[in-house]
Amino acid sequence: MMNRRSLGRTALCLAASAMLTLPLSALAADEAPDALIKRLSADVLSTVKSDKAIQAGDLSKVIALVDKTVMPNVNFRRMTAAAVGPGWRQATPEQQKRLQDEFKVLLVRTYAGALAQVNDQTIQVKPLRAAAEDKDVLVRTEIVGRGDPIQLDYRLEKTPGDGAGWKIYNLNVLGVWLVETYRGQFAQEINAKGIDGLIDTLAARNKTNAASAKG
């Protein structure tokens, strides 16, 4: 039986792969956010279960998939800015770019190791509590399989204009929001070493993870 830590890793995997399977084309502006998550969740499970390379932990394939599909469809700049906190406004454009790049690699490598965990899970989307005019919503889901159900929630915002549609900007796994979790870690680094110190720490962590993966 999978323990709760394994289930948590599965939840992170599904959260990541939900973003990985977002289509290249702009999402329909009139698609409801809960309908979007439900559709993506179904795509995630079928994709991961049928892709032997992802199941085997092919990191290069996962990273390529992120570059191709995630960035156009997730508000990753907002996600990174929220994780960095007040220091983001003091960062130069170059520092902001490096923070986004290193944070993306960190998240991809964190999730890639869990991708093989998905097997017989299904996702249930709970009824959406939002008004038609809302531009920022919470979509709650549960991963159901072996063991206790896993809470996996998404915060989405509706983007106007070109590329209009709903975009994910935060994830909640087992009651813990991803952005807030990293904000605490990043704040300690910024207070001790500044923005460049945080960038160096993220780069070093990514290099260590890359070496471990090769080993």
UniProtKB/TrEMBL annotation:
InterPro entries: MlaC/ttg2D. The keyword Signal applies. It comes from the Bacteria. The keyword Ligase does not apply. Residues 1-28 form the signal peptide. Keywords: Signal. This is ABC transporter substrate-binding protein. It comes from Acidovorax benzenivorans. The lineage of its organism: Bacteria, Pseudomonadati, Pseudomonadota, Betaproteobacteria, Burkholderiales.
